[in-house]
Amino acid sequence: MSTQDFLVEIGTEELPPKALLSLSNAFATGVGSGLKEQNLTYGQIKPFATPRRLALVVTDLCEKQEDRQVEKYGPAIKAAFDESGAPTPAALGFAKSCGVDVKTLQSSPKDGVEKLVFRSSQAGRATQTLIPAIVNSALDALPIPKRMRWGTARTEFVRPVHWVIMLFGEDLVSTSILGVNTDRFSIGHRFHHNEKISISSPSAYEDQLTSPGFVVADFDKRKRMIRELVVEQATTLNAKPVINDKLLDEVTSLVEYPVALTGNFEESFLEVPQEVLVSAMETHQKYFCLVDKNDALMPHFIAVSNIASSDPDQVVSGNERVIRPRLADARFFFETDKKQVLEELLVDLKKIVFQESLGSVYEKSFRVAQLSAAIAKDLGINEEYCRRAAVLSKCDLATSMVSEFADLQGLMGYYYARNDGEPDEVAIAISEQYLPRFSGDKLPDSDVGAVLAIADKMDTIAGLFAIGQPPTGSKDPFALRRSAIGVLRILVERKLNLDLLNCIKVAVEGFGFLQPQDGVAHEVFDFMLERFRTWYQEDGISSEIFQSVHALKPTIPLDFHYRILAVHHFNSLEQAKSLSAANKRVSNILDKTAADDSCNELNVELLVEDAEKTLAENLSLIMLDVAPMFDKRDYTEGLEVLSRLKEDVDSFFDSVLVMCDDDALRANRIALLQQLRDLFLKVADISFLCQS
C-alpha cells in the first residue's frame, strides 16, 4: 500500500515553558493512539516543540485503511425459517437491516448454533478523511489544567492559535482545527524571520524552519545545542557549568534559536551563601551558574538568548543589570536575617497556618520536637539535639530570605543556626529535614537529621489521618505517599531499628486535642506498610513475597526488609515450591480444626508412624539451630536451614493420615504441624508463595 509523510503544526502564542515538553509528548502519544484505533499503519512519529508551536511528522503513513471483511450474525436457522422453509419475520427483519434479500444470506455456526450471517467487504477509508478527527481528539486530550479563550469564538486551548499546517505528502488537508483553517504556511522566528514560510512537504519541514526561519524545531536538538553552547562558554573561563536538567528543559522551552552569552557580577556577592546566588540566577533569571575546579561559585553566569544580536555586549550588559538587583536583594535579606536569632522567630510561626484543622507551624514545631525526642530515645541518639533541631526547624519560614526564595527553606535555617552558634548537629539536621524530597533523592547523612526528617513527615501523615484526610485514589494533595516512602527509605537504608507502630502512636498522641479515633494509629501503620509493596515491585520482588511478610505485619521496617530479602532468596531454592505448598496445606488443616481440636503440646509417645517420628525429631533439632539466627535477624540463613525439612515434610504427608479417627493421635499430629508452621512464621507466611 502507498504511503505518505504527514505533518501537523499548531502555531500559537508563547506556550508555558514548564509544560511544553509534556504537551509535545502527549500530542504525539494522542495522535499515535488515534492512528492505531483507525488501523492506519505508519513508520514513526517525530514530535517538534518550540515556544510558539507544537508539531509532529508521521513518516510512511498509509494512504487508506485496509479493506476488511465484515460479518454480521442474525437469528438461529431454526428461528429464521418455519416448517415450510419460508423466512420468519426475524429473518426478514435481519435481511432488511443488512439491506439485502434473505436469499443472499448465508449460514454459519456461532457459539455452537447455526445462524444466519451477512458477509460483505468494507472498503477502507482514505487517511485524509480520518486525520482531522484524530488530531482534534489528541488536542482535546492534552494535559492542560486551564484552557484559554480568545477573540469572540468559544474555542479553547492552552494559548491562542494563529495558524495550523496540515500536509499529507505535498497535499494540503483542508479542515478547521481549533477554529483556524489549515494552510501550508508556518511562521519563522519572531525577530529574525517573522514571515510566512511555505512548507513544501513534511520531510522538508524541519530544514525550512531552520533556514530561512531561524527556528530549531526539534526540542532535543535544541537542548543539545544549548548544552554545547553553555559548555563552550564555560570553557573559555576555565570553569564548569552547573547544568540542572530541569533548568535546561525550561530554557529549551523559552527559545527557538539559542545563543549563549557570558555575563559577570561583583565578587562581593560571593559572601552570600552559594545556594542563594544559584537560586536567584537559576530560578528567577534562568541563568546557568559557573563553578571552579573546587566547585566554588564563580562571579559569572551564562544566559541563553533567543536573539542573535548584532551587538551582543548590549545583551550581556542588560542581563547584568537585571541580575545585580536580585543578588543585592539576596545579600540584604541575608544580612538582615542574621541580626535576629532563629529562636526569636518562633513566635512569628504562630501566624503561619500549617493546616486549618491542625493548627499553626508553631504548634507543629513543638509536636515534631516531642516526637523527635521519643524517636531519638528509642534509637539511642542525642535527644536534646533532636529536640532543639525540631524546635528551630521551621523558623527560617519567617525570614526575609525564605519569603523571597521559598526553595531555600531548611537550607537558610542551617546558615542562620550556624550564625547563631547552634551545635553543628542541630544546624545540619535543619538542612536535612525535608530529605528525601522526591523519588531517588538523597537521604539525611546525619543521625539527628534522619530523626528530624522522620518526625516531620510522621507528624504530617498522622495529623491528616487524624482529621480523616488520607490519600484517596489518585488524589494526594499533601504527598503523604511520598512522605511515607521517604520515612521507610530512611529507616531501611540507614539501618535504623525503629518500631514504626510505636512511633505512629506517639505521633497520634500529639493530636490529642482532636480526639482521634482509636484505630487511627493502626490505619496509618497499614498505610505505610502498603508503601513497601510498590517499593519491592520496582525491585522485581513479587507481590506474593511481599504478602508473605506483610501477613505478619512486623512493626520494625528494617526487620520487614530483612524478611523480604530472606523470602526472596528462599523462593529461588528448589525446595521452596514444595515447602510453600506444604505450609498452605498445614494452614488449611489448622484453620479447619481450630474449633474441633485444641493443639496441645506435642507428645512424643503418641508418635506412631516413622515419618512423623522423623519429622518431629528433625524439627526439634532445627529449632535449636535456627533460634539464634532468627534472634540476629539472619532470616536468609534460617530459611535455608528450614529448607532441609522438605523431604521430611513430603514423607509425612505421603504416609501419615493427619485426620485419623483416633482423637489423641489426630490432636498430636495437629500439634506437630502447628510447630512446623510456627517455625516458618518466625520469618513469613510462605503459604502465600503457593499459587494453587
Q: How would you describe this structure in keywords?
A:
692 residues, alpha+beta, Alpha-Beta Plaits, 5 domains, five-stranded antiparallel sheet, four-stranded antiparallel sheet, 25 helices, 15% strand, flat
What would your notes on this structure say?
With 692 residues, the protein is of the alpha+beta class. The chain folds into five domains: 3-65 and 126-210, Alpha-Beta Plaits; 69-121, no CATH class; 220-336, no CATH class; 342-540, Orthogonal Bundle (Hypothetical protein af1432); 564-689, Isoleucyl-tRNA Synthetase, Domain 1 (Orthogonal Bundle), CATH 1.10.730. Helix content is 47%, strand content 15%. The strands form seven sheets. Strands 2-3-1-9-10 form a five-stranded antiparallel sheet, covered by helices on one side. Strands 15-17-18-16 form a four-stranded antiparallel sheet, with helices on both faces. A three-stranded antiparallel sheet has the order 4-6-5. β5 (106-110) and β6 form a beta hairpin. α15 (447-466) packs across α17 and α16 packs across α18. The longest helix has 26 residues, at 312-337. It is flat, with a radius of gyration of 35 Å. The protein starts with a strand and ends in a 12-residue tail after the last helix. The model has no long low-confidence stretch (mean pLDDT 93).
